[in-house]
């Protein structure tokens, strides 16, 4: 029996997706070979690539002004590629957690960075409101922010309103809730949370923004050249894209992003209620800024952490340890996590509190 996997990434995939991939592993569409073994320029794979792009465009209701790229290097590569393309004067950033810090530090190697606001003084337990930001530099090229911080479990309840290009790292929340993609000039997301296995990063870029891009030394990491080559300047991560297409198909079968948003709200609400109704567990994030994807929680007695993790693991509840930088526990509730998994977790938590509280 499959366990309930609460890992923050690489994360669980829908069971039906894994079953289809298993069935097609040795013989894809009666071709006699695996999709992993075919040419990335042949009809079999190019049809998969086209399908993945079309499904993602439908799921996110992307405007025609925006293009989709499948790139390598994960979101971490984008931390450097974004300023190397678009930083001419000043790059503006919101510091809301550990992934924001990594993006900011990477950008500093390419030019001047303005941190408009930070919640570091409160251990990243809230999202700074736009009213609290410093004044934006007159020569700011773009604003970068992280709508959902995986490690701290902080979610921005608003989309910034700015008159410069808006760039967002949606790695841990893409496809989990509806967004107005037209408000963003650049969206990127590592696949290994809500899209598929590690190995590919999705980039959604407004074509107009590319007109301001600096040419890159390597065509593999040049957005314009990758767009012109349909994400195939070099051999793309074909199997990761194939699995992403299966996940996109699964999402459409569930009713799309709006349907997943309702389910995700139920899952998060159920877990937060279990935490808030208890004197034994605590969530450190401001109520208005709690993530629906990543739920950290702390036990009243941290001496019980190891016991909690050992017993939850034995109960089939996997990967509940908090990130090494913050400790405690963390349950990631990505799209593939069923409501039954959250129910099993909350039942275990209540039983654990009865026995140790």
TrEMBL record:
Domain Aminotransferase class V per the UniProt entry, residue ranges: 4-345
Subcellular location: Cytoplasm
Pfam families: Aminotran_5
CC cofactor: pyridoxal 5'-phosphate
Sites where the protein binds pyridoxal 5'-phosphate: 75-76, 99, 150, 169, 192, 234-235
Residues modified to N6-(pyridoxal phosphate)lysine: 193
EC main group: transferase
Family, similarity comment: Belongs to the class-V pyridoxal-phosphate-dependent aminotransferase family. SerC subfamily.
Name the UniProt record assigns to this protein: Phosphoserine aminotransferase
Organism: Umboniibacter marinipuniceus
């Amino acid at each position: 029996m499959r366990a309930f996997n609460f890992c923050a990434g690489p994360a669980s995939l829908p069971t039906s997706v894994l079953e289809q991939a298993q069935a097609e592993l040795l013989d894809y569409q009666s071709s006699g070979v695996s999709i992993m073994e075919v040419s990335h320029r042949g009809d079999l794979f190019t049809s998969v690539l086209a399908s993945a792009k079309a499904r993602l465009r439908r799921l996110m209701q992307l405007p025609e002004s925006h293009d989709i790229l499948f790139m390598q290097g994960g979101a971490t590569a984008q931390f450097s590629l974004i300023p190397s393309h678009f930083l001419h004067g000043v790059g503006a950033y919101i510091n809301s957690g550990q992934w924001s810090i990594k993006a900011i530090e990477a950008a500093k190697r390419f030019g001047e960075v303005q941190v408009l606001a930070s919640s570091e003084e409160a251990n990243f337990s809230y999202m700074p409101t736009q009213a609290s930001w410093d004044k934006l530099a007159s020569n700011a090229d773009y604003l970068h922010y992280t709508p959902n911080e995986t490690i701290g479990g902080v979610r921005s309840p608003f989309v910034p309103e700015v008159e410069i290009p808006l760039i967002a790292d949606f790695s841990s929340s893409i496809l989990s809730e509806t967004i107005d993609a037209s408000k963003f000039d650049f969206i990127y997301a590592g696949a290994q949370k809500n899209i598929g296995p590690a190995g590919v990063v999705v980039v959604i870029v407004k074509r107009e923004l590319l007109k301001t891009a600096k040419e890159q030394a390597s065509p593999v990491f040049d957005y314009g050249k990758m767009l012109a080559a349909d994400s195939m300047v070099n051999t793309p991560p074909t199997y990761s894209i194939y699995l992403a297409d299966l996940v996109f198909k699964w999402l459409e079968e569930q009713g799309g992003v709006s349907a997943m948003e309702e389910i995700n709200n139920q899952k998060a609400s159920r877990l937060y209620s279990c935490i808030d109704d208890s004197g034994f567990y605590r969530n450190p994030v401001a109520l208005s800024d709690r993530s629906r994807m990543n739920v950290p929680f702390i036990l009243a007695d941290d001496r019980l952490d190891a016991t909690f993790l050992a017993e939850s693991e034995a109960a089939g509840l996997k990967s509940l340890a908090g990130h090494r930088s913050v400790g405690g526990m963390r349950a990631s509730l990505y799209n593939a996590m069923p409501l039954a998994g959250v129910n099993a977790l909350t039942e275990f938590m209540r039983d654990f509190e009865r026995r140790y509280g």
